[in-house]
Amino acid sequence: MPSLLNPLVEGGAGVWIYNQDLCHLIDIPDDSLDAVAALSALEHNPPDRLSQVVNELMRVLKPGGILLATLGASPDRDWFHQPSQGWCYTEATLRRAFALSPSAPSNYDRYNELFEALRNCAELRDNLASFYFTSGENGMPWGRWDPQYQSVGVLKVKAIA
Q1: Whole-number Å distance between alpha carbons of 1 and 106
Q2: Quick check: helix, strand or coil at residue 17?
Q3: Collapsing DSSP states into helix, strand and coil, what is residue 52?
Q4: Of 33, 115, 105, residue with least CA distance to 73
Q5: What letter does residue 158 receive in the DSSP assignment?
Q6: How far apart are the first and last CA of the chain?
Q7: pLDDT tens track for 71-105
Q8: Sign of the CA dihedral with 26 first, then 31, 36, and 40 last
Q9: Which of 29, 36, 18 is nearest to 98 (CA)?
Q10: C-alpha distances in Å from residue 99, one per residue of 4, 28, 52, 154, 161
Q11: Which residues contact 118 (CB under 8 A, 6 or more apart)?
C-alpha cells in the first residue's frame, strides 16, 4: 500500500487517486482522509448498494471529515437513467443510504418547482457542452435540451467520538 503522505510535498499534503470498488476501499485505512468529494459518481450504484458505498466512504474519513456528493434526484421512485448509466434516487433512499436524521434539511418538497426552473434555464440550454452534440449515448442525447432528472447534493460530516 502506498503511503498516504506524499514525500514530494512538504508536510505530506497531496492528492492521491485510487481506482477501486467503492464498496471495498482496501488501500485506504480507517479514519485517514479529511474529505471525500464524490461528484456524479455515486449514482452509478444501485439503490440496494448505495448504503454500503456510503458506509465505506465514511469509514475512511477522519472524525469531523466531510463527505460531499452529488447524485441524481427523483421525486417519487428510484429509477435508472439509461443514457447517463446512473440512478436517480428518492429522498427516502438518500436519507437511508447516508443515515441522515429526519431533521436534516432538505428541499425535496420543492422538487417540481426546481426541476421546472432547470428545464427553463436558458443559460444551461444555450451553453450545452459540445460533446453532447456528437453522440446519442449520453445524458442529453444528440444535444437536445431535455433534462430527465436533476442533481441533488448531500453533505455529511463524520461524527467526532
Answers
A1: 39
A2: coil
A3: helix
A4: 115
A5: P
A6: 27
A7: 999 999 999 998 889 999 999 999 999 999 999 99
A8: positive
A9: 36
A10: 28, 22, 11, 11, 17
A11: 124, 147, 150
Query: What one-letter code names the amino acid at 33?
Result: L
Take residue 5 and report the three cell numbers written for it: 503522505
Query: Percent of the chain at pLDDT above 70?
Result: 91
Which pLDDT band holds residue 12 (cuts at 50, 70, 90)?
low
The residues near 79 (Cβ < 8 Å, ≥ 6 apart) are 87, 88
Q: What is the C-alpha to C-alpha distance for residues 56 and 93, in angstroms, rounded to an integer? A: 17
* Secondary structure of 83-143 as H, E, C letters: CCCEEEECHHHHHHHCCCCCCCCCCHHHHHHHHHHHHCCHHHHHCCCHHHHCCCCCCCHHH
Whether the Cβ atoms of residue 115 and residue 79 lie closer than 8 Å to each other: no
Element (H, E) at 79: strand 79-81
Q: Check: CB of residue 45 under 8 Å from CB of residue 53.
A: yes
Read off the pTM: 0.85
